[in-house]
């Protein structure tokens, strides 16, 4: 007999390889099916029991040239029901209409059944029935006996799949493309065309565990069909129960124990599945138990950002289905997540190939990895891409540093150039030793050049502080040109690398400039964190450099603790706490734009908002309603903030009330780091009576900000003991 084995559209080539490996006469037929010619009953049962990629196994019964309206009746009259169904057997009928062909599947099925040569017992569910599939096209109609019943991808081990569950056959296709379980010796692998995954697998976004379970089933050589008792072929008249029983017994005997897996592969198989969600991991463990492979998989709740090189020992492969982000506003953070995946895998698992599933090639391109292969599949209405890549380790971009002027400067620019070179030479040793990627080079050191100059990797951000109205605009413009020339000359920067902004005093509703569309983001490294900055679209670039030492402190102080970030801006402090192993965090800011930026920063570093929550709110209002407790709090309020729903916030006047509210939420033994940049700030003396307060401003000022006194005030605040 001839069989048609269907699959997810796009996987026919991969399915053909799988069936050929099962010694079946397979030939791809389009992108969603494989034909098996001169097929025996045993071979049909083999597909049902052993194929990991197939969806349905169809036996063609009739194909007629007929109009759609007459198709059901014509197929029924042509169908020899007694050749396929025993007298007491039940029937399950499903009709599909080709795209563009009008018709109601329920009516078509009903017409078909009414016109059969004899009455039969009908079932809505396929279990326990012979399954028939009608395909109605514009000019012809076909009838098939469905040997699979429900799709073969439904193995039976996954009762609940969690959010957006991955289809088992797609997970298997990812593993097949990644060569998981391949017995081809590494010496025979052509490095230009293929990858060798070794015998370790890590899924850092395991969800309900489908990839890990399918990988374990492959390693144990466990037939996927052994996990379900019901197939359509069991109710076909030509079926042999004895042959099926013998095949299942043989398949059961092939299942490898852990010791046999080691013996087969000549080394231990390691499968690790991580996820940040406790609920997802509960589902994953339950699925692995039902599949009988729980002892082969290490499940652990850990977010991607906390994975380290020790989690990728030896040679292995990363196979994963990370969050895609279905909503438009999620696109930015999904881009950042994929960028972070590529960077972290390259840094921690340099020689591990990465097999990943995505729905957007532009997002997948953010990985920055080297493409090995890609398969395009159609999963329902969604187009997916299975991409196998190699990580590309890129050396960190060294920040621009001062040197001899690259070109001759006008005399008026030379004083600034000399001061830039002097500052740069003083900072050079510190920059190199601490591996500083972003730093302040100049901060209004010379009265005639009222600028600050910050270096972010290979880019320079220049802020001009607006001159008094008494200064002639043409003279100010000339001074601006001299400044930019001096900066470019001593840093060796192209004009495109220098971004100039003018900062003037803002009041009332004009305190914050309206932010432009998000574009031009670049990444800077700070400690163990990657942070997004934007030098082209904003007055503030997204990172306050003077708080670098405090943020680095969070990496060591927040392990296992609950962290709260108030007036959080773009969430850089939260990222450092997360990188340092904070158990959870809450980030509060009134700006949706800044919170979206914070979400991208978290995604870039491999953290979700499930355990690192973002709250858009007025801080004082949020604190009054909050009932949570925290171990470490960072509060860096603005000098002034206007509010539509309450009185305007003035830090000198209102900081006492703010600190009192925060301390209600601070756990005994915890610490509040309270900061502000109002230069004339004076701490309310009442605070010293209520709490243990230490002024740590001097220790918190980094070398690149020490030339101009204190850029901020910083206090540690704790509850009094006893």
Tell me what you see in this structure.
With 722 residues, the chain is an alpha/beta fold. The chain is built from 20 helices and 30 strands. The strands form six sheets. The chain has an eight-stranded mixed β-sheet with strand order 2-3-1-4-8-7-5-6. The N and C termini lie far apart (87 Å).
How would you summarize this macromolecular structure in one to three sentences?
With 722 residues, the protein is of the alpha/beta class. Helix content is 31%, strand content 25%.
Low-confidence stretches: 184-193, 506-517
Spatial ordering of strands, largest sheet:
2-3-1-4-8-7-5-6
* Ends apart, CA distance between termini: 87 Å
Helix/strand class:
alpha/beta
Q: What is the radius of gyration computed over CA atoms, rounded to a whole number of angstroms?
A: 33 Å
Task: Report the total helices.
Answer: 20
Q: How much helicity do the residues have?
A: 25-40%
Average the pLDDT over all residues and give the rounded result. 92
Proportion of β residues? 15-25%
Main beta sheet strand tally, sense and closure = 8 strands, mixed
Principal-axis shape equals elongated
Per DSSP E runs of 2 or more residues, the count of β-strands stands at: 30
Describe the secondary-structure layout:
Layout: E1 3-7, H1 12-21, E2 26-28, E3 33-36, H2 41-50, E4 54-65, H3 68-78, E5 90-97, H4 105-114, E6 121-122, E7 130-136, E8 140-146, H5 168-177, E9 200-203, H6 210-219, H7 241-254, H8 258-265, E10 270-275, H9 278-291, E11 297-301, E12 317-320, H10 331-348, E13 354-358, H11 361-365, E14 370-379, E15 382-390, H12 414-434, E16 438-443, E17 451-456, E18 459-465, H13 473-491, E19 498-503, E20 521-526, E21 529-534, H14 548-557, E22 562-566, H15 572-579, E23 584-589, H16 592-604, E24 612-616, H17 619-625, E25 630-635, E26 640-641, E27 649-650, H18 651-665, E28 666-676, H19 685-690, E29 691-695, H20 697-700, E30 713-719
Parallel strand pairs: 5-6, 5-7, 9-10, 9-12, 10-11, 12-13, 18-19, 22-23, 22-25, 23-24, 25-28
Antiparallel strand pairs: 1-3, 1-4, 2-3, 4-8, 7-8, 13-15, 14-15, 16-17, 17-18, 20-21, 26-27, 28-30, 29-30
